[in-house]
Amino acid sequence: MQYFEVILENGHIGAGSSYEAKRYIAGKDILSVISNVRFLPRIKKRHTIEAVKSIRPITKEEYVKGMAEALKNPHLFRVWDGYRCPICGERFRDILSFRQHIERYDVTMAFAG
Question: 1-69: which CATH number, 3.40.50, 3.10.20, 1.10.1660, 3.30.160?
Answer without folding.
Answer: 3.10.20
